[in-house]
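As the work plan foresaw, the team has encoded backbone shapes as discrete tokens. One protein thus recorded appears below exactly as we store it.

:::
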Amino acid sequence: MHTIGAQPGQRPTANVSIEWKAALERIIVLDEADATEGWTVVAEGRGQLSAGVCRALQEECPNKANVVYVSTQCPAKQVLQPNCSSAIGIPK
């Protein structure tokens, strides 16, 4: 379990990424504060994946997600921000 270091309304010190079944070499960093396709802070030190990401993890579908990664090496990715290249724990 990772602590994301934030309370609701604060920028967390964590990144959340997923690996897709259709493209194993491609890791997608999810945007924080995106309840539709990313994740959100729901309580101190806790985050919640969007319903779409949860479905992709649970259902066998063309956009099936295999794995969720969490890294606390960079601040959370936000919309229009490039990925942090120093994230640890995410395969290259």
